[in-house]
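pasting input
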Amino acid sequence: MPKLRMGMVGGGEGAFIGRLHRMAAALDGEIELVCGAFSSDPDRSRRSGAALYLPPGRVYDDYRRMMADESALPAGERMQFVAIVTPNHSHFPVAEAALRAGFHVLSDKPATLNLQEALQLRDIVRETGLLYGLTHTYTGYPLVKEARARAAAGDLGSIRKVIVEYPQGWLADRQEDAGNKQAAWRLDPKLAGISSCIGDIGVHAANLAEYVTGLQISSVCADLTTFVPGRVLDDDGSILLRFDNGARGVLIASQVSVGEENALRIRVYGENGGLEWSQQEPNTLWLKWPDRPTQMLRTGAGYLSPLAAANTRTPGGHPEGYLEAFANLYLAFADRIRACEAGRPPAERGRDCPGIDEAIRGMTFIELAVAASASDVKWHQFPEY
Amino acid sequence: MPKLRMGMVGGGEGAFIGRLHRMAAALDGEIELVCGAFSSDPDRSRRSGAALYLPPGRVYDDYRRMMADESALPAGERMQFVAIVTPNHSHFPVAEAALRAGFHVLSDKPATLNLQEALQLRDIVRETGLLYGLTHTYTGYPLVKEARARAAAGDLGSIRKVIVEYPQGWLADRQEDAGNKQAAWRLDPKLAGISSCIGDIGVHAANLAEYVTGLQISSVCADLTTFVPGRVLDDDGSILLRFDNGARGVLIASQVSVGEENALRIRVYGENGGLEWSQQEPNTLWLKWPDRPTQMLRTGAGYLSPLAAANTRTPGGHPEGYLEAFANLYLAFADRIRACEAGRPPAERGRDCPGIDEAIRGMTFIELAVAASASDVKWHQFPEY
Amino acid sequence: MPKLRMGMVGGGEGAFIGRLHRMAAALDGEIELVCGAFSSDPDRSRRSGAALYLPPGRVYDDYRRMMADESALPAGERMQFVAIVTPNHSHFPVAEAALRAGFHVLSDKPATLNLQEALQLRDIVRETGLLYGLTHTYTGYPLVKEARARAAAGDLGSIRKVIVEYPQGWLADRQEDAGNKQAAWRLDPKLAGISSCIGDIGVHAANLAEYVTGLQISSVCADLTTFVPGRVLDDDGSILLRFDNGARGVLIASQVSVGEENALRIRVYGENGGLEWSQQEPNTLWLKWPDRPTQMLRTGAGYLSPLAAANTRTPGGHPEGYLEAFANLYLAFADRIRACEAGRPPAERGRDCPGIDEAIRGMTFIELAVAASASDVKWHQFPEY
Amino acid sequence: MPKLRMGMVGGGEGAFIGRLHRMAAALDGEIELVCGAFSSDPDRSRRSGAALYLPPGRVYDDYRRMMADESALPAGERMQFVAIVTPNHSHFPVAEAALRAGFHVLSDKPATLNLQEALQLRDIVRETGLLYGLTHTYTGYPLVKEARARAAAGDLGSIRKVIVEYPQGWLADRQEDAGNKQAAWRLDPKLAGISSCIGDIGVHAANLAEYVTGLQISSVCADLTTFVPGRVLDDDGSILLRFDNGARGVLIASQVSVGEENALRIRVYGENGGLEWSQQEPNTLWLKWPDRPTQMLRTGAGYLSPLAAANTRTPGGHPEGYLEAFANLYLAFADRIRACEAGRPPAERGRDCPGIDEAIRGMTFIELAVAASASDVKWHQFPEY
């Protein structure tokens, strides 16, 4: 059995997230990059492909061409899935083209430019019967898995309060005017959609809260802001949450919390216990108890759940990082493809990867937050689609 | 010149906060406890006084009697101010009696049972021309002073976002039925007022946010909750804030965040820099910058502001704690009394103590938060009185 | 029963440690400063006494005069014990004078200028039958008590390894030439004895190691250094330790670890568990286990030992600091005096204070470390006196 | 230009370090595993190769056969270097065979079973003119690079004191009897050499100290211990160090510090500043100053040195871990091979990888530590070879 063959759309020279996807895919030796449409600029795509040691014939400058040409290759040679790492506005058309051409899709988040596209995408996924994965990377960390396992096991009791935060500071001034491409597209509604802060990072926080608790957000009260003059989209937001079990929550996201890096953090409090996890120190999970000392759980320790263990590569004390979390999503998606192609259910290895349901919820959350913020009405219900 | 003479109302055997007030008052050797009405139970008050080495004649079981008898003593012998450490419902009547009898008042917070009383109290303070202090203890920490000094100096630039949290976990179950007196009165509206969580700790958080930033809360959107069945008052709350300069904020307070102790924490982000301080590790203040390493400021260091230095007792590396912060308020209040009695302005030693204005804002905040939480309207303006 | 009456020798205007002793003595309202010989400069002593609200007649400029005059006062008025807060060279003569005059003695550390004096002091203590206490302040912290209790209970199993460190940075350059009085006397052999770094802080570390583990150091291999040119005494030292049960250890002390404040830290590893405590975050004690998550114990928590609880003043989450630890020694010494004067054994309140035995071991350690460092022989046995 | 082709010796099913090497090699897409002798058990080697998607013809059960067969392949097909991931006793014979057959070698540490072999190895490396790399993984971390850059730039001034520790707890009981293969070979002198604790982890600590400071250890005073009964080799050690510039140091290594994971940590203090780095939180580097706040440097920040930046893959706040550090060594070694094969000096990308000099120093350190511990003489000079 050979490695799984991956194609990539986007991620050419100078791109940020594409390189991370490639490292995540490569880490475990299960997946091989075989082709790509790295840029619509032919020279740039060609140079990118060459730097990745790809044969020129598998480097494209048009994703539609890639779908067509790869489809024409022998089954044992052509790519098996496409990783989409473009700005948001291309996620949907590329995913649609890939699925229509018979390729599974693993897409960067947010899933699409808007909710409408996400709903269409779901239809296409259902029609084609192919696999769709969405890289909410942070759910790939071993101790996020552990947190989910503990909550699911009832260790915390019924959950009462959830605080999830994602402060960044990199957009505290007009980076978009300073030649920062990452900033420029994220603040451009044509490329990013109707939200910058919530669309780029708030949606990660919402996904993490639902993933860890197993609950669903049922209504929100939002206050989004644009602090830096000249911007069209929000660069900060604070959102009160209510969950389907009656739990309350707060979601804080910001791109202008100057001096913060990527400080995603979640705290969950139930009737019997609480937990806390921070992305910047991802190998520690705190469990808090009413009458016993707080416990510090550590990645790689023998006392962790099978779910955490299945998503860990190194023994305790050898820190795992963002790329390993990312690679866990790739591994899980690869498992699903292997199973799908073999016509069997995915092996139960304890790995998972967000899919089209998370895509819908994410796009719903973004649109709901923007609408709620603009409204004088306090609470806005989370619609089901 | 002798030590300043203090009387105390409340704080008898088994009480919690009274003992802390006494230690705070004693620490610097500037203040002497000379009398007290420690309990309305004569035996309990007497035993309490004896344990404090007070002569029986200066131990009372009725605060009104104390005001009267002390007034009758020679000027050089009678108490000079009263510390009020009873549950909330007595704050106003005791303060009124003390002021009317000519004694300065240093009161535990919240100032009164409700806003109406606080407004009356302000009138009495104005009428009598006497001093009133309110022990928002957390503003007494050296590095809270430093944070305020930095914000005031403009180091952060214009402030954009404030996150202040005060999670506790001690009321996550029905402590009030388990013989916990501290729990019982805080959850009894007759003794505590209309709020437990916001009245007891949320008001500290709001005060801290205003103290550090120098801004004022201008409107709120609140979601208070009672998680533990059988309670009348809130035991949790999340509040969106807007400040008078346009800054946004979040205030999170909870008595049911199980496993948390007293985790008051504030983060402030401005255009040019941010800061973070946590009460449980109070000797560290973090300053965050867009393009330079985060700085860890430490109590007692030579690079701190005069304001911080004036509120510090030990050299760097000798941790100062809650009682020292508390004692700073006592020292500041003592300075004011000395100055007042000498007919001169307070010596400029860089110490300060909250007063009647903070009392009014605190009671306003509590009532506003409760009303806003009950309302379907999103934003509620902070009224000025 | 009145407060316990304390006299003080040393600690006049501008002194460092004397002020801390006074705050520690005052905190709990059990002890009253009634007299002092704060300086041999009469004006300075007088001004110091006045600032402390002492009557002029109880302020002395000669400690021998103080002993004589206080002895002549009525029993219910004269001081009951003397706190000695002078530089090291005066500890012995003052302690001797106090004991000979019938006063208990609480002395700052190190006990004396050299071991010979410490042995003499022990004879005098034994002769007079009076109490002698030594302020190894760090053993007063609640969680140091807890650490000792856990080790004594066997929770760690037989102890194998002890690492104790005390890095400071304040003497990394020639502070002694820059008008820093604290630096000047600590580096002057006539005032400080044969060691600066080990005599001032290494001895604290050794004491802490023995206190927490309940073991005794049995031999040492030392490497002391003088880094800053022009100094006679050591300003840094690293010492390998062996303990009487076979455990091994390392003691690191430094006054030139630039940027460090007062970073005393101890780690103990036994067959079954380990512990870690740091003075700069004294309200956390870490317990480490082979197969369970590390536990974070916190001052004030309900699960702590009675020993820790007896040395705690505030509920969990209200940080206690250096002065509270210091005050615990004063409380313990006060208990012993009360009991001694009442002719009964000390009340079993779980408090303790180092005494003459620790004084002997401390002075032995200092002299042994200096001798061992100068020797080519590897191991030097800890002598018993 | 194709990817660089790697062969592997060792690292079959169930092995620990081989898998980590493979992930480190794969991460950046620069290196391709093309063959391996994963085990001398043919079935095990075959299964291992199959799981790695290798063609059966490139899977060997004898490393000598691998060297021979690969040599016979066309230049553009055969492996270009060998990664050695066997237990210590095979490092030398495999490396010798590889070099003699014309292949570069990247070896796990310690370099050889003993110093004598290391010296022989150096001769062979010199003779063959081929490249030799040694995976002292911890020097691959971005902030270890930064620490080295800062020390080299003189930011700390002349270095005075170095404290390096490597506590682990996993061998606190007889894991070697419990079927733990990793434990068994590390404690077997035939497979591991004359030391377990110093040979396995102490040598990493020594290497890190020299790497960061740019200094060389010039003499040692050692106390190694075997705590767990029945063992032949040391499982704990404490070593006093002196460096060639006069700096002093302490190296603490332990396999019985129960509850510790892999807590490698280094602190360096110079005349003007200090630094601290911990492997378990590798994305933070502390810089300490005499008169300014401590600075927290973070991986990925814009203010870091080019050396750190060249060894970083993700933006600030996306934690990098052990595998990324490991991959940095592979990238650096790949650079050297590319340059060597092209007959040019290595591109100056700021990457580096330890080589034969570090191999000699490492083996010297291990043998010196064991000898010094057994001796009654205090100091033992570090010999030059």
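fyi The domain at 158-270+360-381 of chain A is CATH 3.30.360.10 (Dihydrodipicolinate Reductase; domain 2).
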